[in-house]
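Is magnesium ion placement plausible here? Inputs below.
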Amino acid sequence: MSDIVPPEVRPKPAVPAKPPNVGAASPSSPFSPPVPPSVVSTGPSVPPPSAIPVLIASHGPSHSNSHSASHSIGHGLGHSVGHGAAHPPAPSGGHTTHSSTAGSTLLGYIGIDTIIEQMRKKTMKTGFDFNIMVVGHSGLGKSTLVNTLFKSQVSRKSAGWPRDEKIPKTVEIKSVSHVIEEGGVKMKLTVVDTPGFGDQINNDNCWEPISKYINEQFEKFLKEEVNITRKKRIPDTRVHCCIYFISPTGHSLRQLDIEFMKRLSHSVNIIPVIAKSDTMTTEERQEFKQRVRKELEMGGIEFYPQKEFDDDMEDKSDNDKIRETMPFAVVGSDKEYQVNGKRVLGRKTAWGIVEVENPNHCEFAQLRDFLIRSHLQDLKEVTHNIHYETYRAKRLNENGGLHPISSHDTQESNL
Ligand SMILES: Nc1nc2c(ncn2[C@@H]2O[C@H](COP(=O)(O)OP(=O)(O)O)[C@@H](O)[C@H]2O)c(=O)[nH]1
Ligand SMILES: [Mg+2]
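Reply from A.M.:
I modeled the complex. Tokens:
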């Protein structure tokens, strides 16, 4: 599988990324080199600590990265790898004991560890897209949860978000986007809300419009990719994850739930959630979660994070913990109340307020952190490397590997 992974999408952060600008060096900041001059002068037999190749582990950028990045761009690699960076070549009065001539890299610092920093800079400039879809029976709180997501801490980061704006009632597949900016990184978050799924008397094939929408986005991307004059950055409308709402019956999954997840799990990352979990007691919730997990397993349904795509043991153990707590039992609300002097999103009942973002009350915050803080990049990678790749291979095969599409299908999208 690794041979189809484009290098630019690796490595992925397996742990919650810290705000990307933490410890970031300003392009002109004169950091001291990571190597004391005395170490450099001891000659090639004693490599300076920074010359030891840095393991690019599955972690995001760190403080030390930004230090050494600033250092290396000014030393030697600035001309080649650091091309385009707003950093001048070796500053005058800098550390000239450090070799910067091509071919003498054995003696000193190469700067491989700056790749992460370079990627970070590029991403900061271009920003990125993240697209979530919500699916489930009408009345399960999908639109409310979307509003909750935007109104919760996610949207508090979004400049100019009109707090009272709501998503209109859904009659067709509709998407709402907001650009969220944090630490200088821009993310265009789009949520695709789906209409009355499973509302008909005959629900055979009711997943079809959803499947069609997902494929249309793949098709759009493919069209752009095979264009002779390709855009430098293809706009990504592909659905990176599909939050599937399970009714809080306390009994078992419905046939339709199983059918939907089974059929769609090969084209999109499905994240099942238990809707309106405030309608269940804590025990009922735990029991129901356990039952749903069992039924999903028995039905052979691969929800995200899929076991087969765990990269390594660390990934597996992190994801195992998450899989054991899924499906997240969520509560949605777009109303704010005053609790202990703070304004919180919640549902007011006769016996108190259910606080949506309080982890003791429900798992909404856990879902949001999972989607954004820890697994966003992985969701995008699995979409690109697995789901899109499957679609692309199939599509190109159909066309004998030549021109991919001639139809106008993709124009039908509601986007
Ligand atoms: N008890 C409870 N009610 C909810 C929750 N989320 C939404 N609702 C209510 O359920 C109704 C339907 O919600 P809506 O978001 O329109 O559902 P959709 O059809 O799935 O989009 C509304 O009256 C909401 O206020 C929840 O988490 N708990
Ligand atoms: Mg709705």
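Short version: The beta strands are 128-135, 174-182, 185-193, 241-246, 270-274, 328-329, 336-339, 342-349, 352-355.
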